[in-house]
Request: fold
Amino acid sequence: MKHEPYRDWLFSDRSLAPDQEAAMEAHLAQCRDCRQLQSSWAQVQERLERAAMVPLPTGFGARFSIRLATERARRQRRQAWTTFGLALLGSIGLAALLVPAVLSGLPSGAGELLKGVLLVRSQVAALLAFVSALLASSPLPTGNWQGLSLLVAAAGMAMTVYASLGAIWAAAVYRFGKPTPPTGGMR
Amino acid sequence: MPAPTKNPEEAVWLREAAAGDDDAFGRIVEAFGGPVYNLCFRMLGDPTEAEDAAQETFLKAYRNLKRYDPKRKFINWILAIASNHCVDRLRKRRLTLVPLEELSPWRTPADISEAPERELVQSEAEKELDELLEELAAKDRAAIILRYWNDLSYSEIAQSLSLTESAVKSRLHRARNQLAQSWRAREERALVFERRRDEARTVS
Reply:
Protein backbone atom coordinates (compact mmCIF):
# COMPACT_ATOMS: atom_id res chain seq x y z
CA MET A 1 0.00 0.00 0.00
CA LYS A 2 1.17 3.52 -0.80
CA HIS A 3 1.80 5.57 2.36
CA GLU A 4 2.70 8.89 0.74
CA PRO A 5 1.60 11.64 1.05
CA TYR A 6 -0.22 10.48 4.20
CA ARG A 7 2.95 10.06 6.30
CA ASP A 8 3.99 13.56 5.25
CA TRP A 9 0.67 14.92 6.42
CA LEU A 10 0.81 12.86 9.61
CA PHE A 11 4.06 14.51 10.78
CA SER A 12 3.40 17.95 9.41
CA ASP A 13 2.52 21.00 11.52
CA ARG A 14 0.22 22.53 8.97
CA SER A 15 -3.50 21.80 9.03
CA LEU A 16 -4.94 19.80 6.15
CA ALA A 17 -7.39 21.04 3.55
CA PRO A 18 -10.86 19.39 3.74
CA ASP A 19 -10.19 17.14 0.73
CA GLN A 20 -6.80 16.12 2.17
CA GLU A 21 -8.44 15.36 5.48
CA ALA A 22 -11.00 13.15 3.79
CA ALA A 23 -8.28 11.32 1.86
CA MET A 24 -6.32 10.86 5.09
CA GLU A 25 -9.35 9.41 6.90
CA ALA A 26 -9.95 6.99 4.05
CA HIS A 27 -6.31 5.88 4.09
CA LEU A 28 -6.21 5.43 7.87
CA ALA A 29 -9.36 3.30 7.71
CA GLN A 30 -7.51 0.89 5.41
CA CYS A 31 -3.91 1.13 6.63
CA ARG A 32 -3.17 -0.41 10.04
CA ASP A 33 0.47 0.66 9.90
CA CYS A 34 -0.30 4.35 9.42
CA ARG A 35 -3.07 4.14 12.04
CA GLN A 36 -0.60 2.80 14.59
CA LEU A 37 1.92 5.48 13.70
CA GLN A 38 -0.73 8.17 14.07
CA SER A 39 -1.67 6.85 17.49
CA SER A 40 1.99 6.60 18.59
CA TRP A 41 2.77 10.13 17.41
CA ALA A 42 -0.32 11.46 19.21
CA GLN A 43 0.93 9.92 22.48
CA VAL A 44 4.48 11.24 22.02
CA GLN A 45 3.16 14.68 21.11
CA GLU A 46 0.98 14.73 24.21
CA ARG A 47 4.03 13.92 26.37
CA LEU A 48 6.10 16.58 24.64
CA GLU A 49 3.45 19.21 25.24
CA ARG A 50 2.79 18.11 28.82
CA ALA A 51 6.42 17.83 29.93
CA ALA A 52 7.15 20.01 32.94
CA MET A 53 9.95 22.56 33.27
CA VAL A 54 12.78 21.25 35.40
CA PRO A 55 13.55 23.67 38.26
CA LEU A 56 16.86 25.49 38.11
CA PRO A 57 19.25 23.95 40.67
CA THR A 58 19.62 25.98 43.89
CA GLY A 59 22.69 28.21 43.92
CA PHE A 60 23.03 28.23 40.14
CA GLY A 61 23.53 32.02 40.06
CA ALA A 62 26.10 31.98 42.89
CA ARG A 63 28.06 29.19 41.23
CA PHE A 64 27.97 31.12 37.97
CA SER A 65 29.35 34.25 39.71
CA ILE A 66 32.28 32.22 41.03
CA ARG A 67 32.85 30.73 37.60
CA LEU A 68 32.72 34.19 36.01
CA ALA A 69 35.26 35.54 38.51
CA THR A 70 37.55 32.55 37.86
CA GLU A 71 37.15 33.03 34.12
CA ARG A 72 37.97 36.73 34.41
CA ALA A 73 41.08 36.04 36.53
CA ARG A 74 42.18 33.40 34.03
CA ARG A 75 41.62 35.81 31.18
CA GLN A 76 43.62 38.57 32.91
CA ARG A 77 46.46 36.11 33.59
CA ARG A 78 46.38 35.04 29.98
CA GLN A 79 46.44 38.67 28.81
CA ALA A 80 49.37 39.43 31.11
CA TRP A 81 51.28 36.41 29.81
CA THR A 82 50.43 37.34 26.23
CA THR A 83 51.74 40.89 26.76
CA PHE A 84 54.87 39.58 28.45
CA GLY A 85 55.39 37.01 25.70
CA LEU A 86 54.96 39.62 22.97
CA ALA A 87 57.38 42.00 24.72
CA LEU A 88 59.89 39.17 25.12
CA LEU A 89 59.50 38.16 21.48
CA GLY A 90 59.91 41.79 20.42
CA SER A 91 63.09 42.14 22.48
CA ILE A 92 64.50 38.90 21.12
CA GLY A 93 63.64 40.00 17.59
CA LEU A 94 65.27 43.39 18.10
CA ALA A 95 68.36 41.80 19.61
CA ALA A 96 68.50 39.33 16.73
CA LEU A 97 68.45 42.29 14.33
CA LEU A 98 70.96 44.45 16.22
CA VAL A 99 73.53 41.95 17.48
CA PRO A 100 74.80 40.82 14.04
CA ALA A 101 74.98 44.43 12.88
CA VAL A 102 76.95 45.46 16.02
CA LEU A 103 79.23 42.43 15.73
CA SER A 104 79.93 43.06 12.03
CA GLY A 105 80.40 46.79 12.63
CA LEU A 106 82.74 46.49 15.63
CA PRO A 107 86.23 45.86 14.08
CA SER A 108 86.18 48.82 11.65
CA GLY A 109 84.26 50.97 14.16
CA ALA A 110 86.82 50.20 16.86
CA GLY A 111 89.71 51.13 14.59
CA GLU A 112 88.05 54.41 13.64
CA LEU A 113 87.18 55.02 17.23
CA LEU A 114 90.78 54.42 18.37
CA LYS A 115 92.07 56.76 15.69
CA GLY A 116 89.60 59.43 16.76
CA VAL A 117 90.49 59.03 20.43
CA LEU A 118 94.24 59.22 19.66
CA LEU A 119 93.73 62.30 17.51
CA VAL A 120 91.73 64.12 20.14
CA ARG A 121 94.23 63.06 22.82
CA SER A 122 97.23 64.33 20.78
CA GLN A 123 95.42 67.62 20.10
CA VAL A 124 94.59 68.03 23.78
CA ALA A 125 98.24 67.15 24.69
CA ALA A 126 99.49 69.74 22.19
CA LEU A 127 97.10 72.30 23.64
CA LEU A 128 98.30 71.49 27.16
CA ALA A 129 102.01 71.75 26.07
CA PHE A 130 101.25 75.09 24.47
CA VAL A 131 99.51 76.38 27.60
CA SER A 132 102.37 75.09 29.82
CA ALA A 133 104.99 76.79 27.59
CA LEU A 134 102.97 79.97 27.67
CA LEU A 135 102.76 79.79 31.47
CA ALA A 136 106.52 79.07 31.81
CA SER A 137 107.40 82.17 29.81
CA SER A 138 105.03 84.29 31.88
CA PRO A 139 106.27 86.66 34.63
CA LEU A 140 103.51 85.55 37.03
CA PRO A 141 104.40 83.52 40.17
CA THR A 142 104.81 79.80 39.42
CA GLY A 143 102.72 78.54 42.38
CA ASN A 144 99.46 80.01 41.10
CA TRP A 145 100.08 78.84 37.53
CA GLN A 146 100.80 75.31 38.80
CA GLY A 147 97.21 75.09 40.12
CA LEU A 148 95.82 76.55 36.94
CA SER A 149 97.77 74.10 34.78
CA LEU A 150 96.36 71.20 36.84
CA LEU A 151 92.86 72.57 36.25
CA VAL A 152 93.52 72.84 32.54
CA ALA A 153 94.89 69.26 32.51
CA ALA A 154 91.73 68.01 34.23
CA ALA A 155 89.63 69.88 31.69
CA GLY A 156 91.70 68.29 28.95
CA MET A 157 91.10 64.84 30.40
CA ALA A 158 87.35 65.50 30.57
CA MET A 159 87.41 66.76 27.02
CA THR A 160 89.23 63.58 25.98
CA VAL A 161 86.51 61.45 27.61
CA TYR A 162 83.72 63.53 26.04
CA ALA A 163 85.45 63.43 22.68
CA SER A 164 85.77 59.64 22.96
CA LEU A 165 82.08 59.30 23.77
CA GLY A 166 81.24 61.65 20.91
CA ALA A 167 83.36 59.54 18.58
CA ILE A 168 81.53 56.38 19.70
CA TRP A 169 78.20 58.09 19.14
CA ALA A 170 79.26 59.40 15.72
CA ALA A 171 80.56 55.95 14.72
CA ALA A 172 77.28 54.34 15.84
CA VAL A 173 75.17 56.90 13.95
CA TYR A 174 77.33 56.49 10.86
CA ARG A 175 77.26 52.71 11.09
CA PHE A 176 73.53 52.13 11.79
CA GLY A 177 72.26 55.11 9.81
CA LYS A 178 73.88 53.81 6.63
CA PRO A 179 71.51 51.61 4.57
CA THR A 180 72.81 48.07 4.27
CA PRO A 181 73.24 46.83 0.70
CA PRO A 182 70.92 43.98 -0.35
CA THR A 183 72.39 40.58 0.30
CA GLY A 184 70.47 38.82 -2.48
CA GLY A 185 67.79 36.13 -2.13
CA MET A 186 63.99 36.60 -2.55
CA ARG A 187 62.48 40.01 -2.89
CA MET B 1 4.66 25.39 27.43
CA PRO B 2 4.52 29.18 27.36
CA ALA B 3 7.45 31.12 25.93
CA PRO B 4 9.35 33.21 28.49
CA THR B 5 7.86 36.71 28.56
CA LYS B 6 10.08 39.58 27.51
CA ASN B 7 11.08 41.58 30.53
CA PRO B 8 10.92 45.37 29.94
CA GLU B 9 14.13 45.74 31.95
CA GLU B 10 15.90 43.22 29.71
CA ALA B 11 17.27 45.87 27.33
CA VAL B 12 18.64 47.90 30.26
CA TRP B 13 20.33 44.84 31.79
CA LEU B 14 21.83 43.94 28.44
CA ARG B 15 23.16 47.46 27.90
CA GLU B 16 24.62 47.60 31.41
CA ALA B 17 26.08 44.09 31.15
CA ALA B 18 27.70 44.95 27.80
CA ALA B 19 29.28 47.94 29.55
CA GLY B 20 30.85 45.54 32.08
CA ASP B 21 28.26 45.57 34.89
CA ASP B 22 28.39 42.08 36.42
CA ASP B 23 25.29 42.65 38.55
CA ALA B 24 23.27 43.34 35.39
CA PHE B 25 24.60 40.12 33.88
CA GLY B 26 23.66 38.33 37.10
CA ARG B 27 20.06 39.47 36.60
CA ILE B 28 20.18 38.09 33.05
CA VAL B 29 21.39 34.75 34.41
CA GLU B 30 18.55 34.77 36.93
CA ALA B 31 15.93 35.60 34.28
CA PHE B 32 17.08 33.15 31.60
CA GLY B 33 18.68 30.43 33.73
CA GLY B 34 15.48 28.36 33.73
CA PRO B 35 14.92 28.03 29.96
CA VAL B 36 18.65 27.58 29.29
CA TYR B 37 19.01 24.90 31.98
CA ASN B 38 15.89 23.11 30.75
CA LEU B 39 17.13 23.02 27.19
CA CYS B 40 20.50 21.65 28.36
CA PHE B 41 18.77 19.11 30.57
CA ARG B 42 16.54 17.85 27.75
CA MET B 43 19.46 17.75 25.36
CA LEU B 44 21.95 16.01 27.65
CA GLY B 45 19.66 14.07 30.01
CA ASP B 46 21.88 14.60 33.05
CA PRO B 47 21.42 17.33 35.70
CA THR B 48 25.12 17.81 36.48
CA GLU B 49 26.13 17.99 32.85
CA ALA B 50 23.13 20.21 32.12
CA GLU B 51 24.20 22.71 34.80
CA ASP B 52 27.74 22.75 33.50
CA ALA B 53 26.47 23.28 29.95
CA ALA B 54 24.09 26.04 31.08
CA GLN B 55 26.91 27.84 32.88
CA GLU B 56 29.17 27.48 29.84
CA THR B 57 26.34 28.94 27.76
CA PHE B 58 26.18 32.02 29.97
CA LEU B 59 29.97 32.39 29.90
CA LYS B 60 29.90 32.27 26.10
CA ALA B 61 27.10 34.84 26.09
CA TYR B 62 29.12 37.06 28.46
CA ARG B 63 32.18 36.87 26.21
CA ASN B 64 30.14 37.64 23.08
CA LEU B 65 27.64 40.12 24.51
CA LYS B 66 28.96 42.90 22.28
CA ARG B 67 28.11 40.78 19.23
CA TYR B 68 24.47 40.36 20.29
CA ASP B 69 22.05 41.98 17.85
CA PRO B 70 19.29 43.72 19.88
CA LYS B 71 16.88 43.23 16.96
CA ARG B 72 16.85 39.54 17.84
CA LYS B 73 15.08 38.23 20.94
CA PHE B 74 17.72 37.64 23.63
CA ILE B 75 16.07 34.36 24.67
CA ASN B 76 16.45 33.02 21.12
CA TRP B 77 20.08 34.14 20.99
CA ILE B 78 20.99 32.45 24.27
CA LEU B 79 19.00 29.31 23.41
CA ALA B 80 20.93 29.15 20.14
CA ILE B 81 24.22 29.26 22.08
CA ALA B 82 22.93 26.58 24.48
CA SER B 83 21.67 24.25 21.75
CA ASN B 84 24.87 24.50 19.72
CA HIS B 85 26.94 23.92 22.85
CA CYS B 86 24.88 20.82 23.68
CA VAL B 87 25.10 19.52 20.11
CA ASP B 88 28.91 19.81 20.37
CA ARG B 89 28.89 18.03 23.73
CA LEU B 90 26.76 15.20 22.35
CA ARG B 91 29.12 14.81 19.41
CA LYS B 92 32.11 14.65 21.77
CA ARG B 93 30.24 12.23 24.01
CA ARG B 94 29.73 9.88 21.08
CA LEU B 95 33.50 9.69 20.73
CA THR B 96 34.03 8.63 24.36
CA LEU B 97 32.51 5.59 26.01
CA VAL B 98 30.46 6.55 29.06
CA PRO B 99 28.52 3.98 31.11
CA LEU B 100 24.75 4.46 30.80
CA GLU B 101 24.33 4.78 34.59
CA GLU B 102 26.67 7.78 34.58
CA LEU B 103 24.62 9.50 31.92
CA SER B 104 21.36 9.15 33.80
CA PRO B 105 22.03 9.23 37.56
CA TRP B 106 18.54 10.58 38.36
CA ARG B 107 16.94 7.46 37.02
CA THR B 108 18.22 5.03 39.61
CA PRO B 109 15.59 2.57 40.88
CA ALA B 110 16.20 3.80 44.44
CA ASP B 111 15.11 7.32 43.50
CA ILE B 112 11.98 6.03 41.81
CA SER B 113 11.00 3.70 44.65
CA GLU B 114 11.16 6.57 47.14
CA ALA B 115 9.06 8.92 45.02
CA PRO B 116 5.33 9.36 45.69
CA GLU B 117 2.99 7.66 43.22
CA ARG B 118 2.18 10.77 41.18
CA GLU B 119 5.84 11.67 40.92
CA LEU B 120 6.55 8.06 40.02
CA VAL B 121 4.09 8.21 37.12
CA GLN B 122 5.49 11.55 36.03
CA SER B 123 9.02 10.31 36.41
CA GLU B 124 8.16 7.24 34.30
CA ALA B 125 6.64 9.46 31.59
CA GLU B 126 9.67 11.78 31.73
CA LYS B 127 11.98 8.80 31.59
CA GLU B 128 10.22 7.43 28.52
CA LEU B 129 10.36 10.80 26.85
CA ASP B 130 14.05 11.29 27.63
CA GLU B 131 14.84 7.83 26.34
CA LEU B 132 12.98 8.60 23.12
CA LEU B 133 14.82 11.89 22.72
CA GLU B 134 18.15 10.17 23.29
CA GLU B 135 17.56 8.09 20.18
CA LEU B 136 17.45 11.20 17.99
CA ALA B 137 20.47 12.75 16.28
CA ALA B 138 21.79 15.78 18.20
CA LYS B 139 20.45 18.46 15.83
CA ASP B 140 17.10 16.71 15.41
CA ARG B 141 16.79 16.56 19.19
CA ALA B 142 17.63 20.27 19.44
CA ALA B 143 15.01 21.07 16.81
CA ILE B 144 12.33 19.09 18.68
CA ILE B 145 13.21 20.70 22.04
CA LEU B 146 13.26 24.22 20.63
CA ARG B 147 9.93 23.57 18.93
CA TYR B 148 8.02 21.88 21.76
CA TRP B 149 9.61 23.28 24.93
CA ASN B 150 10.58 26.74 23.79
CA ASP B 151 7.85 27.38 21.20
CA LEU B 152 10.29 28.66 18.59
CA SER B 153 9.07 29.12 15.03
CA TYR B 154 10.70 27.34 12.09
CA SER B 155 12.65 30.47 11.15
CA GLU B 156 13.83 30.96 14.75
CA ILE B 157 14.94 27.32 14.96
CA ALA B 158 16.69 27.73 11.60
CA GLN B 159 18.53 30.79 12.89
CA SER B 160 19.44 29.07 16.16
CA LEU B 161 20.80 25.92 14.56
CA SER B 162 22.32 27.58 11.48
CA LEU B 163 20.01 25.66 9.15
CA THR B 164 17.62 26.65 6.40
CA GLU B 165 13.92 26.66 7.15
CA SER B 166 13.33 23.74 4.81
CA ALA B 167 16.12 21.81 6.57
CA VAL B 168 14.36 22.45 9.89
CA LYS B 169 11.07 21.21 8.45
CA SER B 170 12.65 18.05 7.13
CA ARG B 171 14.56 17.46 10.40
CA LEU B 172 11.37 17.90 12.43
CA HIS B 173 9.48 15.61 10.09
CA ARG B 174 12.18 12.95 10.38
CA ALA B 175 12.38 13.35 14.17
CA ARG B 176 8.60 13.04 14.62
CA ASN B 177 8.54 9.95 12.46
CA GLN B 178 11.42 8.43 14.42
CA LEU B 179 9.78 9.26 17.76
CA ALA B 180 6.52 7.67 16.64
CA GLN B 181 8.28 4.56 15.33
CA SER B 182 10.28 4.21 18.58
CA TRP B 183 7.14 4.63 20.64
CA ARG B 184 5.36 1.94 18.61
CA ALA B 185 8.34 -0.40 19.00
CA ARG B 186 8.24 0.14 22.77
CA GLU B 187 4.54 -0.61 22.92
CA GLU B 188 5.02 -3.76 20.91
CA ARG B 189 7.87 -4.89 23.19
CA ALA B 190 5.70 -4.19 26.22
CA LEU B 191 2.83 -6.22 24.70
CA VAL B 192 5.11 -9.17 23.97
CA PHE B 193 6.47 -8.99 27.52
CA GLU B 194 2.97 -8.94 29.05
CA ARG B 195 1.83 -11.83 26.85
CA ARG B 196 4.82 -13.95 27.89
CA ARG B 197 4.28 -13.11 31.55
CA ASP B 198 0.60 -14.09 31.29
CA GLU B 199 1.55 -17.32 29.57
CA ALA B 200 4.11 -18.10 32.28
CA ARG B 201 1.48 -17.45 34.97
CA THR B 202 -1.02 -19.74 33.20
CA VAL B 203 1.56 -22.55 32.97
CA SER B 204 2.55 -22.27 36.64
